[in-house]
Design a protein that fits this description.
single chain; mainly beta; 29 strands; 35% strand
Length: 445
């Protein structure tokens, strides 16, 4: 909304008051002026909305920064705090979040107060890992675990269409977070930290063609068992869906029928992901207790050629054994990642992903049909005008105290026509929770 700017002079003071009639208090001799300037980054800081909140009354005033990155307010004296936040989309699949907050600002009568907000910019991909289901479930006998029904769900976390070529999935070594990890130095650092790459073990999977995902939409990728598993295991997942994708490429060497039976005939062959295998084994060894999974995109080279280039090889634990072979994926290629720790080995798990890739981890209990699910960004989701009356609250599908802190039931809200924006801070501890069941199952059985 265009703001009409009213300038008037106080005969006893020699400064101008800039007043926004739409969202600021009526000017009078009992007001003070606040000039808030955004600093900290070299980006254009004009056109960002700044909020000024009266701590005592809760009243909120909004103005937009000028070319110098400054917003001006005329408000009654009191104690205030200010914040600035905005998302800007680029020309590709990345967008940028700008955030900053001031400390307390004291506004005095008939005086001008200046304050600065140090802004932080984060580069965020539109595409995120929404959910990972890999821990398996119990067979109908209640005794035997069934592990061959894993999946990962990708999500376009924006209002813009996202398109990706050479989109890949890989896993860090060791396979389990609780396994002996010989990649640490004496001072407790991963030996590839600061080297600009993340080693991914055994083999990678990639989409065979360009993947386009519509706004606020998801893509289900079956990892093991692209069939209707519920016919034999009622607690499992039915993947016999025409719009699902699956990891199935027996010609690659991943031909273990137990892990990868022939997919359901309803899944088109164009939805079969391809594999590039550089380690040993006849199945992709995704952990059922504590994987570290990485989503990335090769640049200026096909995934197959990248994986075949011996110059990219790296060995887990320093061994030269092909069983330990990894490829060095440049960190700048990584779109998203998630580190999972096993609840059964709480004191033994150690990280495999460096802090710039995933600064945290999320706990998971396997064998119970649980999944790890991305938290809802409540503020961003509630700010979407189209979500009015469509969001469902009182989320109750967590495990113990591990629930979505937003309180929003994302899946119920989506079914109700809402658009969900998920939290993405590159820290799995903040961004994920353990869900009672995979979202592809309607209700527990």
């Amino acid at each position: 909304m265009r703001k009409f700017l009213i300038y008037f002079s106080l005969f006893t003071l020699h400064f101008s008051l800039l007043v926004s009639c739409s969202n600021q208090e009526t000017p009078s001799v009992s007001t003070g002026v606040v000039a808030i300037t955004l600093t900290g980054i070299d980006d254009d800081l004009s056109g960002l909305d700044v909020q000024l909140r009266n701590i005592s009354t809760g009243s909120v005033f909004v103005d937009t920064t000028d070319k110098q990155g400054t917003a001006l307010f005329s408000v009654t004296p009191g104690l205030y705090e200010a914040s600035a936040s905005q998302t800007r989309f680029g020309t590709g699949n990345e967008y940028y979040s700008y955030n900053g907050m001031s400390g307390q600002i004291t506004v005095l009568k008939d005086r001008q107060t200046t304050a600065a907000i140090t802004m932080k910019r984060a580069v965020i991909s539109r595409l995120v890992i929404k959910e990972l289901y890999c821990g398996g479930c119990m067979a109908d006998d209640g005794i035997t675990p069934f592990y061959y029904d894993k999946c990962i769900i990708l999500y376009n976390n924006s209002a813009e269409t996202a398109t990706y070529d050479n989109l890949c999935l890989g896993i860090a070594a060791p396979a389990n977070a609780q396994a002996t990890n010989n990649n640490y130095t004496a001072d407790g650092r991963l030996n590839y930290e600061g080297e600009g790459f993340t080693p991914l073990w055994n083999g990678i999977w990639f989409f065979p063609a360009t993947l386009t995902i519509e706004p606020y939409s998801q893509v289900v990728v079956n990892i093991h068992g692209a069939i209707n598993n519920t016919l034999s295991y009622s607690n499992s997942v039915d993947y016999a869906k025409a719009d699902y994708y699956c990891m199935f490429d027996p010609e690659s060497g991943y031909n273990n029928q137990r892990y990868c039976p022939t997919p359901s005939e309803v899944i088109p062959t164009s939805h079969y992901l391809k594999a590039a295998v550089y380690g040993q084994g006849n199945a992709w060894p995704l952990s059922n207790s504590s994987p570290a999974i990485v989503l990335f995109q090769t640049k200026d080279v096909t995934p197959a050629d990248f994986a075949a280039n011996t110059a990219n090889y790296w060995y887990d634990g320093g061994s030269s054994n092909a069983v330990k072979r990894c490829v060095k994926v440049p960190n700048k290629w990584i779109i998203d990642a998630i580190e999972v720790f096993s609840s059964d080995y709480a004191t033994q798990c150690v990280k495999r992903l460096t802090a710039d890739i995933d600064a945290g981890y999320v706990w998971m209990t396997n064998k119970k049909g649980h999944a790890v699910y991305r938290n809802v960004d409540r503020q961003a989701t509630e700010s979407l005008a189209e979500n009015e009356g469509r969001l469902v609250y009182n989320y109750s599908l967590g495990v113990d105290d591990s629930t979505d802190p937003s309180g929003i039931d994302a899946e119920a809200s989506i079914s109700n026509g809402a658009h969900i924006i998920y939290q993405n801070t590159n820290n799995a501890t903040n961004d994920f929770h353990e869900r009672q069941l995979c979202s592809l199952r309607a209700t527990p059985k």
